[in-house]
Design goal:
Elements (H helix, E strand, L loop, with lengths): L1 H29 L3 E2 L2 E2 L7 H10 L9 E6 L6 E6 L4 E5 L14 H7 L7 E9 L2 E11 L4 E6 L4 E6 L13 E2 L5 E5 L4 E2 L11 H4 E10 L6 E9 L3 E7 L7 E7 L8 H4 L5 E8 H9 L4 E3 L2 E4 L8 E7 L5 E3 L5 E5 L5 E6 H9 L3 E5 L2 E4 L1 H4 E6 L4 E6 L4 E6 L4 E6 L5 E6 L4 E7 L8 E8 L15 E7 L6 E8 L6 E5 L26 E5 L2 E9 L2 E3 L2 E5 L3 E8 L8 E5 L4 E5 L4 E7 L4 E6 L12 E7 L2
Parallel strand pairs: 14-19, 37-40, 39-45
Antiparallel strand pairs: 1-2, 3-4, 3-35, 4-5, 6-7, 7-8, 8-9, 10-11, 11-13, 12-13, 13-14, 15-16, 16-17, 17-20, 18-19, 21-22, 22-23, 23-26, 24-25, 27-28, 28-29, 29-30, 31-32, 32-33, 33-34, 36-37, 37-38, 40-43, 41-42, 41-44, 44-45
Bound molecules: [4Cu:2S] cluster (CUK) and dinuclear copper ion.
Length: 626
């Protein structure tokens, strides 16, 4: 107790000291003096820059206030940043192989990745309880192979990859969690013949190609995903979506484009109509229908035909190929972002329900009632060119990214007026505000995920990094504070208060764990015919055993347990020329499997620097020729 207090005191004092030093060194740049060899003058350092530096500087010994989780796009990863420093803390492999941690080499991770060595991660979704991030898990979709992954936030590791989810071709943006993480919803970007593998000519597009939204059930105890139910939709493209909350809990909203049902020249053909739709789906009603057995088995999923469940799906007209749809924190409005129209359209959920209850429809399409547009829409906000996504703060403001204009527009949810605009560099896609998708956003910070960096960083050749910009929301004017380069390609991010996440320090000792050994006497090599099992222990700075002799052709199962129960003491394990590699975190047991198909002598060594004797942590695998 006493020790902790001293440490905290030390950190506080050190932090204060560094802070003062920084303030001094910055202020000394405005007065023409020399500090630490740095010649500084008044020119070039404005009050704004000093303010920005102080707001983003996190001194040694202090920690960031928020975690920012950003998808890594076609790199398949999840990036973890600290806010406000915008330092990248970790990259978590999800749909990709990552040799730094052996992800894609260990038996467990190989099984998770299955047939695919890549994925296209788009939309991270933090688990929620009562519409608030609870810090337990993060789910993320794979646009390329119709999968969903779960990252456990107690260890920041991928624990499940679910899919390919039957019948859903390319679940791009329609991916989100319901307010109590009951379901992870995904809808198809591509219409396609179902189940997968069915062949049908493009000429049969309108009849044979289907859109599908899948509701993947999440176990509230451990986050385990399983097939829930699916609903058949018209052969349109489904883009972003959001779950209702508060008054609109039980509903979800999807944007559609290509209601033209084109299958060639999409960039022209799918933009013909002045209006597409936001689709409003009563998921609780469909859940009940699935329970009542109103389903057909298609491709191993329980699929509902919405025509069998009247009142479960409605269409809300929305200007030209809308992109994002965002539900306000109180659940009272859903907002369509125009993409090809310079406006966001604000719809009232209450008015929508009134149309539904009084059957105030203006027609139907593909059997779905189209609700009265004039009545449902409460405002069209002229935000600027290329609105894609909207986020919220704690003061009743909305922030919309403007892709074409390279700007963010701030507007009021009270009078629907634009109150501020700031330039970002360049071409923002998503925005992420602090706790922005919850019923209770924090405001404070907004991160703009920009698609192009152009001249913002030192050149690295023809292709430049992506850029994330941190924006201060604490005053009435937005202020860009910091530019943070990033790898391809964050599509979306979510920001959660750091103290909501509780990590563990070491993997607990568990004698019952498959392959685990905790004493050097128990380390051994066991042979059963051609099958050899190695039970290895890694402890600073030695492997037990440090020589393993087997025969050419043996099937090898190799367990490695790190018995350094000491935070951050991770050992690696790599076998030369055998493409075998993994890490074992403190207390963790890893499993590797391979066939010893080449005779010879193969050194193995610890890849992860672990002590002054790290270089001595090695051994030999001897493979006797046949
Ligand atoms: S999205 Cu994925 S391509 Cu979420 Cu606007 Cu951009
Ligand atoms: Cu163990 Cu390096």
């Amino acid at each position: 107790m006493h020790k902790i207090k001293l440490k905290t005191l030390f950190v506080a004092v050190a932090g204060l000291f560094v802070g003062l030093l920084l303030a001094y060194s910055i202020s000394s740049q405005i007065s023409p003096t020399t500090t630490g060899g740095l010649k500084a003058s008044k020119e070039g350092v404005s009050e704004d820059l000093i303010d920005a530096a102080l707001k983003t500087y996190v001194p040694p010994g202090q920690l960031d206030e928020y975690y920012l989780f950003a998808s890594g796009g076609h790199s398949g990863q999840l990036f973890v940043y600290g806010v406000p420093s915008m330092r990248r803390i970790r990259s978590i492999p999800v749909f990709n192989k990552e040799s730094a941690v052996g992800y894609g080499w260990t038996t467990e991770s190989k099984e998770m990745l299955g047939d695919f060595a890549w994925g296209d991660a788009h939309h991270p979704a933090l688990s929620e309880t009562k519409g608030d991030y609870d810090g337990r898990w993060l789910f993320m979709n794979d646009n390329a192979n119709s999968r969903v992954a779960r990252v456990n936030l107690d260890s920041f590791t991928t624990q499940q990859i679910f899919g390919p989810v039957p019948n859903v071709y390319g679940p791009h943006g329609s991916v989100f969690l319901t307010p109590n993480s009951e379901y992870f919803m995904m809808a198809s970007r591509f219409a396609g013949p179902i189940p997968y593998g069915t062949y049908s000519e493009l000429d049969n597009f309108k009849e044979d190609y289907k859109g599908v939204m899948a509701a993947i059930a999440i176990d509230p105890k451990d986050g385990e995903m399983s097939v829930g139910w699916e609903v058949l939709l018209p052969p349109w493209s489904y883009d972003l979506s959001d779950a209702g909350k508060g008054v609109s809990d039980g509903w979800c909203f999807l944007t559609t484009y290509n209601t033209e049902e084109a299958y060639h020249l999409l960039e022209v053909e799918s933009s013909q109509r002045e209006r597409d739709y936001i689709m409003a789906i009563n998921w609780k009603m469909l859940e009940q229908a699935a329970k009542d057995g109103k389903v057909k088995d298609i491709g191993g999923a329980k699929v509902i035909d919405p025509m069998d469940v009247p009142g479960s799906v409605y269409l809300v007209p929305c200007a030209k190929s809308p992109h994002g749809v965002d539900v306000t924190p109180d659940g009272k409005y859903f907002i369509g972002n125009g993409k090809l129209a310079p406006t966001v359209t604000v719809f009232s959920f209450e008015n929508f329900m009134e149309c539904v209850n009084t059957k105030d429809f203006q027609g139907e399409e593909r059997g779905f009632p189209i609700v009265n547009y004039e009545k449902t829409r409460v405002a069209e906000v002229e935000v600027g060119l290329g609105p894609l996504h909207t986020q919220f703060d704690d003061k009743g403001n909305a922030y919309t990214s403007l892709f074409v204009e390279s700007a963010v527009a701030k507007w009021s949810l009270t009078d629907f007026k634009v109150t501020d605009k700031t330039q970002v560099h360049y071409c923002p896609g998503h925005l992420a505000s602090a706790e922005g998708d919850t019923v209770n956003p924090d405001g404070k910070y907004l991160v703009s995920l920009n698609k192009l960096a152009k001249d913002k960083y030192l050149s690295v050749g023809p292709s430049h990094p992506e850029s994330m910009q941190l924006i201060d929301l604490t005053s009435s004017k937005m202020k860009v504070l910091y530019d943070s380069p990033t790898d391809p390609e964050p599509h979306f991010a979510q920001m959660i208060k750091a103290d909501k996440i509780k990590t563990f320090e070491v993997y607990p000792k568990d004698e019952a764990r498959e392959g685990a050994v905790y004493a050097k006497e128990d380390a051994k090599v066991v042979r059963d015919g051609n099958n050899v099992t190695v039970y290895m222990m890694a402890f600073r700075s030695r492997y037990y055993p440090d020589a393993v002799e087997i025969n050419e052709g043996d099937h090898v199962t190799w367990y490695i347990t790190n018995t350094d129960f000491d935070e951050d003491i991770t050992h690696g394990f790599g076998i030369m020329f055998y493409d075998i590699n993994c890490e074992s975190q403190p207390g963790q047991t890893q499993k590797l499997e391979f066939v010893a198909d080449k005779a010879g002598v193969y050194p193995y060594y610890c890849t992860n620097f672990c002590s002054a004797l790290h270089q001595e942590m090695q051994g030999y695998l001897l493979i006797k020729p046949k």
